[in-house]
Amino acid sequence: PFSWFRRSSTPDPSTPAGAPHLPSRNLFPKESLMDLYVYISQDEVFSDFNDTQSLFWFHRDLVYGDWNTGDEGDGCYEHSLDLDIQEKVQMNGSLYIHVYFTKTGFHPDPKRKSQYRRLATVHATRMLNKFKRRKFVKTKNLLTGETETDPEMIKRAESHGPVEIISHWHPNLTINMVDDHTAWVKGSVPPPLDQHVKFDAVSGDYYPIVYFNDYWNLQKDYYPINESLQSLPLRLSYCPLSLWRWQLYAAQNARSPWNFLPEDTYEQSDEDQDSVKVALLETNPYLLGVTIVVSIVHSIFEFLAFKNDIQFWNSRQSMEGLSVRSIIFGVFQSLVVLLYILDNETNFVVQVSVFIGLLIDFWKITKVMDVKLDRENKLFGILPRLSIKDKSTYVQSSTKVFDDMAFKYLSWLLYPLFGCYAVYSVLYQEHKGWYSFVLGMLYGFLLTFGFITMTPQLFINYKMKSVAHLPWRMLTYKALNTFIDDLFAFVIKMPMMYRIGCLRDDVVFFVYLYQRWIYRVDPNRMNEFGTSGAEPTGVDPNKDSTAQGEVAATGEVAATGEVAATGEVAAITEKAKDEKKND
């Protein structure tokens, strides 16, 4: 069933005539008796087998591939002990674990000629501690200069710099022996498995795969090693591991050598994976299944909303009924979010996502306004001046009047709230500097009161008594995603402010739905593409031409003057009937 992990043998140019390698076998047959030796040392290369203090665990007569023995009847054994910390380890030194499996009767020390056999010994080494970056961000109250940061942390930041590399410890580690007897071919083992399958240079066969498994060790459970610790608890487990589970673990822990992302991104990725692991460990299986399905649906709706948003603005000819000021404010809001996450060193993937969203918002500006380069009035006589003007369909319509009116009423509420939030932020919050203060204040204000910017469109809909000009497909997909966010907001732990944000978006969308219900669709009203759903009324050939008026190719009807495409054709029809009765 795992044939897709295996490749056919490939010619090796080092062999005569490019002869292919032959399939190999495991040097430890199934059910071989083994002895386990575990040594703990500060040396990466271990050789002092006579040091009894370095021997952490010795277990005799393990059975390779046995799944029925052990304390719990699952083939697993455990051993725990507290390690004494030496001063070098406390000062960011390293600690290594050296694991040896030998066939029963043999010893891992090469110096014991009568007891050592190369093909009967499997060796694996790994560093037990983990070095992690700890970043110190110096913040203070901009008015008083005081800070609530621990003085000890400030001293360490002054002596070690803003980024400090600290050794961390986790008390649990599992040693897995993979129960596998696949006929691997040297040079043809696919990555990342090739990093673990070791071949003997003489016989061509491979050693049993020893895998250090710390996948379920959460990042939040690591703690720093410092002078205050006198000992380090260590609990080792030995367990057999099936081939397919080992492949899953190896694939999850593998990192591409071609990856261009910085190491900071990897650390953030490890923390992000913690939430996935916690969900797998603690969430009800049925709820977990629903969450996975809903996540896939959320991604589909997000893509559809993006696609329909682009289509709507790309085909839009008239700005009738749309709040241009809200779109401009949206660009400002996206720009603030991007600058804020750059200032706070957020995940690289999030930065790219927000940047792409900002580019789309800038593109919308070119669709709702006339953006041109004025080459006659140049800046400094060299650079063309950028000219931005409202479209004629927006200036000459009642939409601009309603839009200006909505933002005037909005400013009465928005500016006082903004001033109060700015005073609160500068008095009670700490910031890195005035630049970070401005960004943090704007971001916090938009996060708290951003929903107010959605109200001008509601006001325009109320004044026009119409919602036909709105991109309803895009709004529907975004609303469905909002409802999905509601599910996640109450299933997954997250800040209360985010939950309130999801609720406020729901309320605004329900107001949109109410407006759609009370403002029935009029087939004679212009839709979002600048066209009407009504067919032009036919002209009676027996009627006098002066009474009939002119019917334009675009559907405009003129009887006693001109009637625009947004007017109703039914009025002309009634007038024609009255004139015919008078005749």
Characterise the protein shown here.
- The chain is of the alpha+beta class and 583 residues long.
- The protein is 41% helix and 18% strand.
- It contains 15 helices and 16 strands.
- The protein has helices at 87-90, 151-160, 243-253, 263-282, 285-315, 324-343, 348-368, 392-395, 398-428, 434-449, 455-464, 472-491, 496-518, 545-548, 570-582; strands at residues 33-41, 55-63, 77-84, 96-103, 121-127, 130-135, 163-169, 172-178, 210-213, 223-224, 231-241, 369-379, 383-390, 550-551, 557-558, 562-563.
- The chain has a four-stranded antiparallel β-sheet with strand order 2-1-4-5, with no helix packed on it.
- Strand 15 (557-558) and strand 16 (562-563) form a beta hairpin.
- Helix 5 (285-315) packs antiparallel against helix 12, helix 6 (324-343) crosses helix 10 and helix 12 (472-491) packs antiparallel against helix 13.
- It is elongated and about 100 Å long.
- Residues 1-19, 256-263 and 536-583 have low confidence and may be disordered.
How does the helix and strand content classify structurally? Answer: alpha+beta
Number of strand segments:
16
Shape: elongated
Instruction: Output the radius of gyration.
Output: 36 Å
Strand order of the largest sheet: 2-1-4-5
Question: Approximately what portion of the residues adopt beta-strand conformation?
Answer: 15-25%
What does the largest sheet look like? 4 strands, antiparallel
Low-confidence stretches: 1-19, 256-263, 536-583
User: Helical element count?
Assistant: 15
Helix content: 40-55%
Instruction: For the record, give the distance between the C-alpha atoms at the N and C termini, rounded to a whole number.
Output: 90 Å
Pfam families: CLPTM1
Biased composition (Polar residues): 1-12
GO cellular component, one term: endomembrane system
Family: Belongs to the CLPTM1 family.
